[in-house]
Amino acid sequence: MLSDSFEGILRRDVRIVSAPSAPRKFRRTHSLRSSLHKQGVDAGRATARQSDEIRKMKIGAKFATVTVFLCAGLAPQLPAVSGQTPAWTTDSVLRQLDEQAGEFHSLQANIERTKVTVVVDDKSTESGQMWVRRDDKMRIELTQPDPRTVLRDGNMFYIFNPKTKTVEEYDLGKKKSLVDQFLLLGFGTSGNALKKSYLITLQGEEVLDNRKALLLELTPKSEDVRNQISKVQLWLDESTWLPAQQKFFETGSGDYFVVRYTNVVRNIRISDDRFKPRWPKGVTKIKPQG
Fold it and tell me: Is this prediction's pTM over 0.85?
């Protein structure tokens, strides 16, 4: 802002120059002082504009600071990005199994079973297809290298060997739950049921056949089971919550067998005929004791 004394001088100069009888030197003085006045006004306006710009910049800086502060304060409350992988714990996995168990009805899958004998470093693999229903029904058709049929229908369990034309028949009776721990582990098994039978440790996440899987290590609580199997590793496919792979460690010998499941189709309709114990004519039925 211009000083009061400078404004007074400018006003006097204007009155003197506007008089009709003003001498030439006063007109020159007026012209000079008018020029100075214009420059002073322009300078004042420039200073005002600069002050306004500085004020706006300060306001903008304060707004930016407040915005950053608010965003920083809100950031921890924002929801997780969709698709973000959750941090699984043993308890959260078991809860998920509880939820999924009620939704499981049946499945069809390819199966590959590999037995490893550690002492002689021997490995043998057989493969085929399997069907499972939650009403205690299961059928495994092994095709390679030698055909065999494994059938479960309620309490009855069968192993058919077409080469020898024999079928072994077992009434599971009290051993039903023991057999299920081996044959149907993870197929519709709830978290609570798993916790009753095993000590459970979550080992982490792995990728099997381009599928994310959670690895659980299971130690049997039952002495009868531990006499045969010291521990089980179970890989759960995160997309289906069904087994992608199982690894059973035999007690004492260190031998183990791995069962891998691929091309799993969940909750398809499977006819009762698939689980009927129908064998070719002339087969010999064997009922092993014990």
Answer: no
